[in-house]
Write a structure and sequence with these properties.
Radius of gyration: 50 Å
Shape: elongated
Distance between the termini: 111 Å
Helix content: 25-40%
Largest sheet: 4 strands, antiparallel
Strand order of the largest sheet: 4-5-6-7
Length: 711
Amino acid sequence: MKRILGFIFVFIFVVYCQETLAFKIGRPWIKPSIDKGFASLEEYDYFKAKRIFYTCHTKYRKLADFGLATIYYRKDNPFHQIDSAYACLKRCESIVVTSAKVQQKLNRWQISTDSILKLRQLIEYRAYEYASQTNSIAGYEAYMQKYWQSNMIAAATKNRNALAYSQAAKINTAEAYQNFIEKYPAASEINTAKNNYELCLFKEFTFSHNAYVYYEFMQKYPKSPYLLAAEDSIFSISTQKKDNESYYAFIKNYPTNRHVNKAWSLIFNNSSNDYSAEFFESFIKKYPEYPFKEAIKRELVLAQTEFIIVKENGKYGAINKNGNVMIPFNFESIDEFSEGFAVASQNGRFGYINKAGKIVIPITFDDAESFHEGIGVVKKENKFGALNKSGEMVIPLDYDDLGDSHDSLLLAEINGKYGYINHKNSIVIPFEWENAYDFSEGFASVEKGEKQSFIDKHGKLLHPLIYDWVEPFNKGIARVQINEMYGLINNRGDSLLPCVYDIISKFSEGLALIAKEDKCGYIDELGKMSIPLQFDYKDENDVFGIFRNGYAKVFLKNKKGLIDKSGKAVVAIEYSDIGYPSEGLIPVKKKSKWGFIDLSGKPAIKFQFEKAETFAQSLALVKIKGKYGYIDSKGKVAIEADYDEAQTFRKEGAIVKKDGKYGILNISGKLIFDLEFDKISFQDDGMILFEKEGKKWLYLTSQSKFIYKER
């Protein structure tokens, strides 16, 4: 086998030497013709054709070069070499034919400018294919240098650039991208490379991630697209504690940073702002360089302005007591203001506005709660979180439920368990409780295994989980319950009263009604018996027996009377019903009629009314023959009993109803508002709310005018 291969090699070598020698001396070793060369080429006799083309090269250079280019181009022969094909064809293109004989042969073998161009394009494309198979930067650049006229130069350039960019991206450093940018400025990847260069430069320079290196970066690269990111990082790093001291230090150290105004806003919002003149004065004294002093003045004016939420054409806004529109009617709902902000909604989403009507926290949440202790709870996609007044999400939307802030802690729920977190989203009390409630006076009630107790701010139980129910502490005292029996404890964990009582009411005027075995009395706020269990207990006593202005109603043998705080009966316990003293008279009922007695118990107005209320504005509401009217302190009818319903007089008047419509009387019995309204109710601060045909009107008594009529 080796001998055969050796023979073949010697044969090829001899042929090559003969043809080369013949070509160089211009003297053939046989007498061929150029036509025979092309005939041999058509028969795929490449050895013979190649020898003839070399032999005829001197006489027929253009034809011979075209034939040789064809042989070197074709891949089905041992002479295939694409660069040689291209060299032969370039010589062929450059030869100008002047001989008619040569031109005749060119025509015979269809060698023309078009055929030469076509072959050149084929050679160039095959050379591109080989460069593509190599797929290297050097391969493409060699192709581009040799075949610079090729139609594939653009594709080769694109591939070369893509490879170069890929190498730079793999290294992924500012230096690698910079080298690419300098070497290939026309590459389609140039913009991406520039962007990545800027990013890598930013990351590499600020690798240590401290405020100083970010500041130095800004000084060294003032045109970098990452200047804003550097400013953001300086702010974030400098204010990690999120307290006023760190915000103020940031302002001092970086006065030109774009977050300076935000830092001032955070300082203002984080301060214990009760929106009083004293607060604003102390704030400016502490921060004299605060840049928004005029805004503070406006805040003060707005804070002292009472806003009334009203509706117009289906949208809510707010007016002041002069009826001036303070907040445009742009919202689907507006809650009452709390800590300077109000929850408002648009398009089914919720956010926050200030008293200037400006949206200060975007209306993007599924729900939102009023601010408490500088924190607003929000809901999105069934998860709860909380933000501060600058709109920063200080507690992420990670919780299944979240309560308002109380004592700087928020009740939170995760997977059916409750715990407590602080304003920095740190877990203060673990999520271990089956139910829990907000903190009040330093304690919160918690539940596990259907038993309740209290924990302090460290999660420590005040006493074991033994109670069926507990209520929040009020002035250090809480009612508790075991087996439906009530007791009393204090916030030190002491039992003031054991759980053996049928009822312990809420405290009023320092005393609470207490009942056991159908007898009731009163205890003081230390849990000591102030009035013994000597009166009969009725279910209505827990409301009926509340002290008002030093008096409480009591039962004894199905009769009612009044006692003072010492337990002394100031009105004999002999009436079937009784009211509270007012203007020296007390409404009382004997048998089926009401009358009035004085404070000594003597009759003052005879028992003649179906119903009687306490005196107010020198008049008392009474019911006569199924209708309501008013009498004076002598028992004389001052306003005829002509109304289906009526209320006790206030200084603004008395609301009355007749034939299904409401109006308001003055003490002279004159209708100051006609009987034309569907509903009337007295509001706080001298406001009266009227409703008519589904629309609401607001009347301000101090100005004697309607300040709002819904449209």
